[in-house]
Structures
1.
Amino acid sequence: MDLRIIQELAEESDRKILLLVLDGAGGLAVEPGGPTELEAARTPNLDELAAASSCGLMDPVAPGIIPGSGPGHLGLFGYDPFRYLIGRGALSCAGVNFLMEPEDIGLRANFATVDESGAITDRRAGRIETSRCAELCEKLEAAVALEGLQVLVKPEKDYRAAVVLRGKELSAAVTDTDPQRAGVPPLKATPGDDSPEAARTAEAINELTRQALEVLADEGPANAIVLRGAARKPDLPPMQEVFKVNPVAIATYPMYKGLARLVGMEVVEGLEQTEEVFDALNKVIDDYTFFFCHIKEIDSRGEDGDFEAKVRLIEEVDALVARIPREAFGAIAVTADHSTPSTLRTHSWHPVPVLLWSPTCRADGVESFDERACAGGGLGRFRGVDLMPQLLAHAQRLKKYGA
Amino acid sequence: MDLRIIQELAEESDRKILLLVLDGAGGLAVEPGGPTELEAARTPNLDELAAASSCGLMDPVAPGIIPGSGPGHLGLFGYDPFRYLIGRGALSCAGVNFLMEPEDIGLRANFATVDESGAITDRRAGRIETSRCAELCEKLEAAVALEGLQVLVKPEKDYRAAVVLRGKELSAAVTDTDPQRAGVPPLKATPGDDSPEAARTAEAINELTRQALEVLADEGPANAIVLRGAARKPDLPPMQEVFKVNPVAIATYPMYKGLARLVGMEVVEGLEQTEEVFDALNKVIDDYTFFFCHIKEIDSRGEDGDFEAKVRLIEEVDALVARIPREAFGAIAVTADHSTPSTLRTHSWHPVPVLLWSPTCRADGVESFDERACAGGGLGRFRGVDLMPQLLAHAQRLKKYGA
């Protein structure tokens, strides 16, 4: 469905919406016939909410598609993840909460180690620490000089950084310098089309790579940078405009705050613990109409491959769910941006359970928030991009379509 | 979802995929509340597989749409049947295993009977036998002469044939000569647009129709031909390219082998009995990574309107399902290309049951492979075109989408 249709139907209202994302909560059984992580976890609060809700299974992007964090969240925010793409470089900038300007070109950078011949010996520079990465970013940003361009270098985590080229007449149509393997020198960036902008940008990236070698020459394992995923800021119409909500993100991890900013959300800063997400929700409840609460740690336990730890985390989050002031909301969805089965240790394509609570929902007899129970729920199976219209509808923020 | 997205995500792998199509297996109860054919059949092997699988209901094309064999299979093969069309003439060519060249125009032909006034008295020429049809096709192909064009005439079944015009500067934009009713003469083909190619093709078809009257003048009931569905070979990107699989079709009926060839599958030839399909699967298991096994007879019993015979056939196929070497596969789907309820004696729009087995699937508690049980399964309801991405994902042949 075209966003212009929703935009025409959406109305301002003081009925509030909560989107609670349990990152990577969907899972798999360890043994055939056994429980998934959500099925194994004791979750009285989520179960009680499910019993009062319509439930279902959701493909965050589409059936079979393994969602990256960007597409998975765009879908949940109501943006078709096949239509709206966030390039790697733009995601890196979002991840460090760097607000790109429309003409900026963002790139994902790795600090790397090169030997005397110029060949890469370690694409991760011995996995330097984030604090060391920050020092090197600062040094690089100060020392590099490209004619007519500003170069901004922001640390991500460990050896990762975001690089922004700021200036006129740049293009994202350039190839990577990161060869994605050791044993060869960084590649030369080449223009991806015939435009003078692409040629100019490729040249700038190559000159930046050259200067970085000089600046970092004595910096031990981190004596080079490789760049990839040149991208502009994605052109996402803000949620305020499309969905007529006043949205806020309540999250602990930079990437999710960055993604939220890309669709126009304000962000509650300074949160570190999962518990603080629920406290902050109560604190800012009067100030917004759309609340995106993001819980990261469940996904991390799945990526660790630790079934038991993921179960425990789910149970801890369940205890915090009791703090949601349900009566303040017109509609609440609890779901995930993708599955992260601990048996697979990574994002997977399996659909995720979803519950949609509202005074206007049809309770469907599902009494447990897990994959098997929700498969029998009244929402059936649907795509992530279809969640937002249902939330808006249940919060009675959508007009009738057509006469 | 655009195939280009899947093409970017799909990866080569040695994990194998089996798509077992029980043609027309979906059905209806004879009496309200009674069992469908699949529910009436005793199917211990399919049920055991279902119990270890994720199950659901699938609309091969879209809800409410009665799938022809072409669109039904294209959907199963992962091609949007609304986007990729196989014209009637091209389907006829596929059905007789005639490999069209890109500039060919394919047409579906009926041998017909005309009276002295030229009016059609029987659009099916007294339903002549296939062997007689083959003789007449050969005679026609040898006798007809069109300037600058080659005319190929291939027998289908009974009174049906495929005609191909081969030459330069032809067009598929021409109207049918088949009036689809008796009592009138064959129609004149007319150009469907203003191009010289359409005019030339219409002229060629009319001249062919005229010459056929001469050639067939003494051939009893089959003394004329009517033509319809002018079409080029559909432009389907091969499965190897899009899905990165090495596919083979194991089928007994020409049309399904032809459809498989249109998407780039190799074909196991010489099979006649259903049993041989399962034997061939075991024989070629090491040579491919995607196996399309097609079982035709269940559909035929449905078209006969014989509920009991369809039940018996399903039970016979179930016994053969035990021969599937499950451990050789990364993912297995068992489903149908459409329903053929014996009460309706024809293809129907009812969604078909589907099971998806994989070491990475979520068993969902469904313990029987039939319409009612699968309706409660973890796959929910989805479209045929969404099956292939799920098979690829479960066989771990898809990369993550987006960062």
2.
Amino acid sequence: MALNPNYEQIGKAFTQQYYALFDNPATRGQLQALYNAEQSLMSFEGQQMQGAAKIMEKIASLTFQKIAHLITAVDCQPMFDGGILINVLGQLKTDDDPPQSFMQNFVLRPGGDSFYIQHDVFRLVLHNVAA
Amino acid sequence: MALNPNYEQIGKAFTQQYYALFDNPATRGQLQALYNAEQSLMSFEGQQMQGAAKIMEKIASLTFQKIAHLITAVDCQPMFDGGILINVLGQLKTDDDPPQSFMQNFVLRPGGDSFYIQHDVFRLVLHNVAA
């Protein structure tokens, strides 16, 4: 499969959609459809899980009343099997806490007439507590 | 190709080797052998380049007398085509400047009897100047 010429547009649109769904409690559950039931891998602050159900369980376990992802930069690269590599740098605002830098990395894989998240890695930018 | 069961060990060893070569001016040029001559893609602070020669040109253009990458966290995931996804969070010390947070993402691809870097994305964690 060739490089997808629209990688930048697809990657940026995906990122916006992902955080819009995440930040609204009424739509957060729809994220499940973006992951593959069995394959998708997530690393969340060093903890690994696989499959849409386990990933959604992790997301649902996060303790905040409200959350907002503010995107600073999105880097996209086309992959040689038709996938798209996305790197996000941003700030996370939860409840009334001060904004916290985060980085998140996605690998999107073509599936059906759309893309799903095959890899998802999330890290807060914290140097004194990260393992 | 199946998931590589040694993804964690390979990813962490690669990361250590990469920054050891980078941080020593006498060995920095050896990084070129880790990239594919034509294919490898790099995004450096939003600027994209392709191929080992152009990537090394970019690295050589960075202006510092001495540099040290201090690794805070390395997240590795096995990819479904035998590759390895690596996410690095760390601190960069250049010359006598204060440490600066950075994130770097690599996709390693099996090639010959080793791995090469197919994708490389680097970003300083700066929210006011990133594009």
3.
Amino acid sequence: MRAGVSVGEARAAVLAEAQPLGLERVSALDALGRVLAEDVASGRTLPPADCSAMDGYAVRAADLASASHAKPVTLPVVYEVAAGGQAPVELRAGEAARIFTGAPIPPGADAVVRQEDTEAEGSSVSVRVAPASGSHVREAGEDVCVGDPAVAAGACIRSGEVGMLASLGRTLVSVHRRPRVAVLSGGDELVEPDETPAPGQIVASNSYALASQAREAGAVARNLGIARDDPADLERHFRAGLDADVLVSSAGVSVGDHDHVRPVLEKLGCRLVFWGVRMKPGYPLAFGTFPEGRGPLVFGLPGNPVSAMVTFELFVRPVLRKLAGHRSWGRPQVEATLVEALSKKPGRTHFVRVQLHRGTDGWEARPTGSQSSGVMRSMVLADGLLEFPADASELPAGSRQRVRVLAPDVLAVEDPS
Amino acid sequence: MRAGVSVGEARAAVLAEAQPLGLERVSALDALGRVLAEDVASGRTLPPADCSAMDGYAVRAADLASASHAKPVTLPVVYEVAAGGQAPVELRAGEAARIFTGAPIPPGADAVVRQEDTEAEGSSVSVRVAPASGSHVREAGEDVCVGDPAVAAGACIRSGEVGMLASLGRTLVSVHRRPRVAVLSGGDELVEPDETPAPGQIVASNSYALASQAREAGAVARNLGIARDDPADLERHFRAGLDADVLVSSAGVSVGDHDHVRPVLEKLGCRLVFWGVRMKPGYPLAFGTFPEGRGPLVFGLPGNPVSAMVTFELFVRPVLRKLAGHRSWGRPQVEATLVEALSKKPGRTHFVRVQLHRGTDGWEARPTGSQSSGVMRSMVLADGLLEFPADASELPAGSRQRVRVLAPDVLAVEDPS
């Protein structure tokens, strides 16, 4: 076990232990946000035949070479083809067929004239333009042909993928399983949110914040409840989470006499990979694994609410994204002008909660006030985390800094109307 | 009814008809992503009392003014306070109390010395530092005091808000209702995805893509199925969606003889606000409302798969976000270098499907190949939509253009490890 690792070392260590989870077949129509685990090739040609891109008339372009606004050409309309229909016979020279969007082009026709460029005259049509061959015709296979790649393994399934899979008749697809996360809080001072805390007691809010973070990351979270500060109760709670992919506890991983987490984890067969990350908030973070994957990845997060959330964001979230098969594990980042100077002692990386605003010269980042790791309200106010590097001791006001964005809404741009 | 409106006019018209939906009380622990509809003030002081931020010893700072590494000061440890516990008596001058993170500071004590700065000696402790008064003490109310604003109405509930609400014991909160969206496809050529299309038939994939877009936007979507191209069947399908907040149909709103959507909607009492938007893909878009809100907002989207998805993105998505109470309705946008020249006739705004890549000089946007409105694969490949303004006819290669980002993953930045 290593102690007091850097943020980068910790991130490398946790990601090295996370591999994409196994597969399950789910309805493509409900697979939104999941990661496809198979290459889907098209079993169909789409569109299946040359078809009309417009409502209008199917024609032979050569018949209309001389047509213009000044000198329209009139053709007899010999039949009609609706979407879903078929031309009864070949279209011969000098004939037109009424046609609708999506309908197959009759044999013999090679162009479509838009309805707007024509005038219906009884059973004939007067055409005011000279179409090029192929005008307003969607060619068979324009979208995909049989055997073409349609959606690649590793794609995050969004609405376009759902539509594509539906159009191919692929109603069931293989995706990576969602990570299962079990969350517990430890501490004799904790009560559940629907209980009234006695003096000295507080609500076990970390379990709820961490379970929410897991859900935001696409995982399935369950709450194992509150473990008391004794080895037997901790062991009982940890055992209840051993079938999860990731086990997250908060509190109890520090140096005090009351910290039973580490010995209990070791008793259960968990090997600690590292303990302590040189960061603030969040130094007392532990990470462990079970030999040969015979148990969950275990994160012992600090007990302070902000420390718990920030360490989850930095280390657990990327692991959950990787387990789910995603190829990007990070957050959007923006470069922002720091509006007030920050200072600290060198040695630990600080993650400063900031609000982001659009200034005249791009993004501005303003610390959310108290950076105490107990001030939950600072996480409510924060749009992002500004990384104050370990070796640095001063970040001047006006300097440009990178901020990882926690609130995606802050990046939204409203369109003028 | 107006015809042939601009993109901006259409956006203003649809947003003017959308107002945040009514309230419902839900479990705060399951309210992730919903918009809070009440100002939540704190009913508690957090932390409820001065408490220790570290494991160590509670002391009177004055007793340790001379303590140093060279000359430690030894104090008797008179009792222990665990988190959730209480000091039995006041701490007197010259005494120390063992204390753990989160435990209340004993009356009489004014500082905490970290365990790392001490040495336990039987029932005494030797202290190697001179703490300032207040050291490692979290003050009562440091997070919130009774009556303080905790989470404001209009906030999108993220993990921090869930934790904050839990810590206040607010297990139920008022949020805006989710929009209910009903989706139908119209056309005689359509079959469901689990059916085998006969020649001339295609899958009604638009319903699935549009329902997915609605879900991605946070709405509850249901699929009304396929309406055939006859007024009675269309009316039956539309009636089934009249209890929704938003009714979305695709296909059937064009100029052809087979388009029964508009007369059916008018028969049901829907007033068309506009028909036709000067854009590509997607001109044949209709928007209607029922007088005095006695029915859903109705969007008649074009039938081409890409036109349907792009018009949903531009007009339905912001409406769904506004209905759900969100204060930002847009997408993130980036400025990107266009890698190939684009040209078109002036008159319509084009939305060009592009892939985004990080180049040496910032984002680069590359069109996804065929911009035909039937090529679903272009939506699978697209990271964003580049807006080619209505009046413009050329966008030179190398020019900087704004792109609205459809695939949030593309913005993710991986951390070095």
4.
Amino acid sequence: MREREAPALREEFPHHSPITTRWADNDAFGHINNVQYYAFFDTAVTRWLVERGFLHVTEGEVICFVAETGCRYFRPLAFPERVEVGMRVARLGTSSIRYELAVFGQGNDAAAQGHFTHVTVSRATGRPVPMPQALREAAAGLMIQK
Amino acid sequence: MREREAPALREEFPHHSPITTRWADNDAFGHINNVQYYAFFDTAVTRWLVERGFLHVTEGEVICFVAETGCRYFRPLAFPERVEVGMRVARLGTSSIRYELAVFGQGNDAAAQGHFTHVTVSRATGRPVPMPQALREAAAGLMIQK
Amino acid sequence: MREREAPALREEFPHHSPITTRWADNDAFGHINNVQYYAFFDTAVTRWLVERGFLHVTEGEVICFVAETGCRYFRPLAFPERVEVGMRVARLGTSSIRYELAVFGQGNDAAAQGHFTHVTVSRATGRPVPMPQALREAAAGLMIQK
Amino acid sequence: MREREAPALREEFPHHSPITTRWADNDAFGHINNVQYYAFFDTAVTRWLVERGFLHVTEGEVICFVAETGCRYFRPLAFPERVEVGMRVARLGTSSIRYELAVFGQGNDAAAQGHFTHVTVSRATGRPVPMPQALREAAAGLMIQK
């Protein structure tokens, strides 16, 4: 394996989203299962979009499809720990947003971190459409200097 | 169907447990799927047990098996709503606890409510054993006069 | 607790639905988590409805809301066991169907069994509407003499 | 975004694992949620390990931790479609296996594909240990010439 980057720190993310873990998140080895981290990413991104009015579950012409995701796991977490998902925007295209996310338990360094790429599509056709300007501006506000 | 009882109220539960909903909790009809309410029940009960030291994920002679659960659904909830699970104890046996639980979104009346029966078993054999006295006393503290 | 009924047998169900278990179904005690049995029920019922054309994910005037569910657990199952869900109809109302379901692993007696009540509602209003006649007839075909 | 590779084909994978989708896999947009593809990957890999005796849920000195996962999504799938996960080994280290996986619905080209890296660790300490020789040999049997 290639040399692994160090875990990200809390302050490297401009937005944080709290998540309560669930008993069923723990797998048979007593740790939160690798799959659930993607539910944390998905929830942090979608909560931000819905709460700011950029995405509506059943209405609106533009919805978001997921094009690519990934995660690296540094140390295990376990229910009933509460976690926080740090979120920033790494890249903005015409119809795509690449988010970078990290899951924090206790402490300041990420337990896991990854990325999540959304494409804005027409709800009717499922084809990519340029993202609305208000979303572009809000997403740009989550970009950070690295 | 038999006549349905009215939804329970927040103040009928001595203990409340906050849960953050997740994007994937919503099913294709845009509401939190019926299955997830059991994850809420399971999480509220197990969090209470773990945080008070009555249950340990990987250690301890006594663990809890689920014998029976049930839920009635009064009105839909949807992500990104935050919910709260009210919890009380309805019946205490030698090795069983019947919890009653209700899920609250906005408002004071339950969106759904149900029950969850745990049996205390030996981790080694999976056979029922009398529950520890400290657990019995804590559970008795969650019983209410109806 | 009241005296518990014996587990149902495979042949007591006119319809069976195969389900592959998943690693994440196992909880920290190494068994399929109580919550997942409801995903099995939900999947068996909805698969039957969708495959026969009675329910469409995104179209059609009538959809189904879940009004009540319940499950009793007799013995643990674990990934990677494959399971089968037996399904029958216990009661048919104007706009409701009460299904009875049982989960089978190895062997002929149920590992768990329960019920699942659907109400047919208008997709537009979410209010109960009489179920279509074709659904009523198909559901009647799943009733059994007990 | 960088130019995207074409989806993999069924015959590029020496092992295939069938998965039944579940109603709750569909999210509010009526497609299988991005998160669930990782449950498919996790299940295919772990089923292979458990069924061949390389991993035991509650016993054995060596277990596997997940170090890194990723997925690219080409076209949506939806319940009640049955899917198949193709699996091959891309890299074998002293204590790590990088699997490549693809999810197939109808048709011969992948709906989504990704990777999943396991590290063999001591159950007692959680620290990496060299993988057992029998596992190494079986994993080598899943490597393909590209």
